[in-house]
Amino acid sequence: MTYQEILLSTIRKTLPKNISLNDEIAKVLDISYDAAHRRISLKSKFSIEETIQLCKFYKISMDSLFNDGKQIIVEKTKKIETLSDFKEYFETTIQVVSAFNPEETTIYYAAKDIPMNYAVSGTLYSKFKFYIWYHLLNKEEITRFEEFHFKESVLNGNDNLKLFFDNSKRIEIWNDTTINSSLQQITYFFEAGLLNFENAIQILEDLHTIIKVIEKKCESNSENYQLFYNELLILNNTALFTSKNKSVFFLPYNALGYFVTSDKKTCLEQEDYISNQLKNSKSLNLSGKKDRKIFFNRMYQKIEFHRIKIEKYIIE
After folding, report:
1. Phi and psi at residue 263, to the nearest 5°
2. Suppose 206 and one of 87, 123, 233, 303 were both cysteines; which one would form an S-S bond, judging by CB atoms 3.0 to 4.6 Å apart?
3. What is the pLDDT of residues 197-213, one digit of tens each?
4. Nearest CA among 51, 84, 71 for reference residue 259
5. Whole-prediction pTM value?
6. Which of 75-79, 248-252, 264-268 has the lowest mean pLDDT?
7. Cα separation, 196 vs 209, whole angstroms
8. Which of 114, 127, 120, 56 minimizes the C-alpha distance to 91?
């Protein structure tokens, strides 16, 4: 099949049987019935502009048209170089997830670090994570956290994103190191004189609250949240959004940047891979109280270790 035949076949599958493909193409492209017929009969070819217009209208991934089984077309999230780039980054993220109905969506997340959705909560921990990401992604001299002026519209403008995560079914895979990065960042910036004592302690408390909320969800076996513990898997912050008719796979390439694809075959392969990893993981929702307590107590002990370390640093 030619690319044009593949496109036409894909469009046909989206249409009810009583709808004329010829009429649809003519209407979407704003061309005559005869011009549409010539394209459908392959006597004329779609222009690049017409192909893009049809794909956008019918929400067809270009991947499905040009995939040869070895290559896929991916989008890349915006490079963050300025504070205003953050706002655009999250606006784009919201646009991607808005194509999903949260009540029909499952999100799989392999948590190398504390998942990003916990950093859009409006807490001091949230602001600190934005501070970390910003300084990891640009070449400006690092300022003190207390002097870091971040647009409140960026921190507080992600309510829709937070609601989406809260209303979706989330399946997260953690291990003993998932919390380490955030803890090490807090201690590092405190010891470097870039984060004051009061804020360091408050950020640790915010982190403790996040872990406590997660523990309660596991105890209640929340329908919308499942946490799995994997001792062997190397986690990398990949995320997969799946629903009945659509999937999107996010593959990280730097601290906050992702390659994004809705290629059906790739998403199915990733879902199959995750399903296999879940079989080799321990569900903290369904495991016994002892196993769950052991996992969460390790998290709390790590937070307490860093709190004591910071307090001793002040005394010494």
Report:
1. -55, 120
2. 123
3. 999 999 999 999 999 99
4. 71
5. 0.79
6. 75-79
7. 20
8. 120
Q: At what angle do helices 21-29 and 33-40 cross, to 10 degrees?
A: 120
Show Cβ contacts of residue 21 under 8 Å, excluding neighbours closer than 6 positions.
8, 11, 12, 15, 40
Tokens of 195: 């984060």
- What pLDDT, on a 0 to 100 scale, did the predictor assign at position 70? 66
Are 241 and 225 contacting, i.e. CB atoms less than 8 angstroms apart? no
pLDDT band for position 168 (cuts 50, 70, 90): very high
- Percent of the chain whose predicted confidence (pLDDT) is above 90: 57
Q: What angle do CA 22, 23, 27 make, to 5 degrees?
A: 120
DSSP string, the chain: --HHHHHHHHHHHHS-TTS-HHHHHHHHHT--HHHHHHHHTTSSPPPHHHHHHHHHHTT--THHHH--SS----EEPPP--SHHHHHHHHHHHHHHHTTS-GGG-EEEEE-SSS-GGGGSSSSHHHHHHHHHHHHHHS-SPPPPGGG----HHHHHTTHHHHHHHHHSEEEEEE-TTTTHHHHHHHHHHHHTTSS-HHHHHHHHHHHHHHHHHHHHHHHTT-TTEEEEE-SS------EEEE-SS-EEEEEESSSS-EEEE--HHHHHHHHHHHHHHHHTSEETTTS-HHHHHHHHHHHHHHHHHHHHHHHHHHH-
Place of tokens 């799946």: 242
271 token code pair: 């879902």
Residues 222 and 285 sit within 8 Å (Cβ to Cβ): yes
